From TrEMBL:
PANTHER family noted in UniProt: PANTOTHENATE KINASE, PANTOTHENATE KINASE 2, MITOCHONDRIAL
Superkingdom of the organism of origin: Eukaryota
One Pfam family it belongs to: Fumble
InterPro entries: ATPase_NBD, Type_II_PanK
GO biological process, one term: coenzyme A biosynthetic process
Protein name: Pantothenate kinase 2
GO annotations of cellular component type: cytosol; nucleus
GO molecular function ontology, one term from the record: ATP binding
């Protein structure tokens, strides 16, 4: 995630080589997030998934999947964080890496998700 002065850019890796066992163990909140992010090209009034930038059948960290690129105005970041709270992102024990000047500005907000 890159939090700039006017735009937030988010990269989402969607694994495509999920085993039946992994799918069974996958928590509902993660399934919900994946369905939401990959089944839309627009999020709210301002969020956009740039389908033309998508990288398919990519291998990262030994996993095969697709990279999705999503962007939205920085002023919408509080709504994104609220969605993270609503969908229980913090229960996933996943690390979110962020860069950009907005990272420092919104650091405390991220810690509450």
């Amino acid at each position: 995630m890159d939090i700039g002065g006017t735009l937030v850019k988010l990269v989402y890796f969607e694994p495509k080589d999920i085993t039946a066992e992994e799918e069974q163990e996958e928590v509902e909140s993660l399934k919900s997030i994946r369905r939401y992010l990959t089944s839309h090209t627009a999020y709210g009034k301002t969020g956009i998934r740039d389908v033309h930038l998508e990288l398919s059948d990519l291998t990262l960290w030994g996993r095969k999947g697709n990279l999705h690129f999503i962007r939205f105005p920085t002023h919408e970041l509080p709504a994104f964080l609220q969605m993270g709270r609503d969908k229980h992102f913090s229960s996933l024990h996943t690390t979110l890496c962020a860069t950009g000047g907005g990272t420092f500005k919104y650091e405390d907000d991220f810690r509450t998700v």
